[in-house]
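Ticket #4471: complex job returned nothing on first submit. Input attached below:
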Amino acid sequence: MIHNRTMIEPKPAPSSSVGPVAWLRSNLFNGPINTIFTLIGLYILYLLVVPTVQWAFINADWVGTTRDDCSREGACWVFINARFTQFIYGLYPRSEIWRANIVFAGFFTLIAWLAIPRLPFKHWVAVFALVGFPVIAYVLLHGGYFDLPRVPTHRWGGLMLTLLLATVGMVGALPIGIVLALGRRSNMPIVKSFCVIFIEFWRGVPLITVLFMASVMLPLFLPSDMSVDRLVRALIGLTLFQSAYMAEVIRGGLQAIPKGQEEAAAALGMTYWKRMGLIILPQALKMMIPGIVNTFISLFKDTTLVMIIGLFDLLGIVQAALADSRWLGFSLEGYVFAAFMFWIFCFSMSRYSQYLERKLHTGHKR
Amino acid sequence: MSVRPNARPAGHKPPFWRDRAKRALIFQCLLIAAVIVFLFYIVGNVQDNLSSRGITTGFGFLNNTAGFGIVQSLIDYSSQSTYGRTFFVGLLNTLLVGGLGVIAATIIGFIVGIARLSPNWLIAKLAAAYIETFRNIPLLLQIFFWYFAVLRTLPSARDSLAFGEAFFLNVRGLYLPEPLFESGFGLIPVTFVIAIVASIALVIWAKRRQEATGKRIPAYWISFALIFGLPLLVMLVTGVPITWEMPELRGFNFRGGITVIPEFLALWFALSIYTASFIAEIVRSGIQAISHGQTEAAQALSLPRNLVLRLVVIPQALRVIIPPLTSQYLNLIKNSSLATAIGYPDLVSVFAGTTLNQTGQAIEVIAMTMAVYLTISLLVSMFMNWFNARVALVER
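Support reply: We reran it on our side without changes. The output follows.
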């Protein structure tokens, strides 16, 4: 007898259990209630998407220089085009914009270098980003050295100012936050209560009152012959406010380190600062990065509040441009543009933080 | 065993800087000294600055006449009222938008959070899109959007958008009918209270009875019917003692009814929608935190589906949900201070804004404003600690 030893090719599964039809049936139309929900969802989608696409793309006007180039049937992106430089750099002098561009390029390169896991020399880049780069950025942006003309801070604005406020506030808040978090876990009762009061105070009040305080009360606190730049005042307020939130994130990270780590370090005869600096903080800080990114996102959104004390961040400059008599009536375009810019930054940062959380999930979790 | 060469003889004390307790004491004394010196420096500077500007400190200014009007006030207020009264007007307006915002944000947040977990792919994705959109756009921008791009571009009073003949929306705000209570109305709240008390008693009795005999009655449905049915019945019996005062167009504006100013609407929408996106994520993670084994075990005990939810899933999910939820409520109340950007007369806008500018009493005004928010935060976190202690897992 001859046996057929070759297997018969398996038949494809019926189209009712694999493929797009099956997917539709199991995810959208399994049962009458779900079908109703799907139809309602489709209707909502239709109501939202069709007018938006028509407004933002199909009926929109893209080219031109004045408001007369806009048909007013859809969005008038001409307005954004005409004001784009201002939205990014504020009132920074046009001839000096190359300086801001260098700072932008350096900033994004450093961030990318630190964020992409494969790139080498992370420590040196981090040290440069925290120590060298701020000095270079200050010299370039502010000027007054090396024959660079001075650009006073009230001309800084737009996206540049938003990024500056958020990063300086963040970098300034990190060391204060570490000290506060360590103090809050200390055994010394006065140090501990001092830190608790400090943290709870800043966390208990709205940022806007902090900014009011920085802009109205800070000049009263200082000797009368000393005047502080308005931008610096806002930065001080933001940093103190942010440091309290940072302290709580860091405390969470410190609590996640098993107590045995500190006990083992103490058994080796390490002093407090050595135990913290060499054993606890390096482990804790790594785990805290997602939390730190999340507080950075909220700080980034909160920087919009500085427009209330008279600084022109991205939202502030958009709001100011809307009041221009040549461009009245384009508030929707202005807000959509600003929202889109903020959304891009915040969304990508939150995705990055989720990616880090997944990556750090291995092994460390008790 | 060898003796360590430089071991100290017994009785020889180490120098004080090697003694941990003494070191801690000295360090803390130094901290206190530094704080005191810092405070003295600041107080001295403040006194110098204030005397050079001719401002006297103290809370006496609270009794002076304010001299400015406020567009929305829950208590009697006119421009002849005192600065002290502006404080309370602002505080009540803050609490009003905060309270209504908390309610709306909770409702939207729970709906979106549950929709996010829906087995229906489209609904889940729509909820996710809602969360990712509104969470990643600054709140101030959303307030501006609702105020300047939506409510400020509405038609004028003559061309108002009308919903029926009772609700009108135009550039000056939303006009609602106002209920006018007639003489017999007092009975209805009384029956309402009686119904609530009766249903609480009923639920307690039903629980005791079930524990004693194992028999169940639908106590919740009965109390639901009591609480809503009884007042309705009384209302019908007494002949509906409510009349509605409709807003009417007279000249260029509406008269009568309740007016909701556009500043309030914009702030309320933005706060609710923004905070709801955070609440939705909290609800989702709270429900996902309950392991599936809990549901399966409850089903294995043949509990019906609504009891599985009510007795097993929801109590455990609430333990995870409530702490971050309260901190979102706190954020909402603190964020309501952004009102000042569009001119809604909240505490910061009326008191830390107008009053501060008119009187120049920066320290007193800012301190009072901050004290209000600190008190609210403290009360809420006290409640949260109490709640945490109550629902915390009792570990064996």
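Residues 13 and 19 of chain A are 9 Å apart (CA to CA). Closing as resolved unless it happens again.
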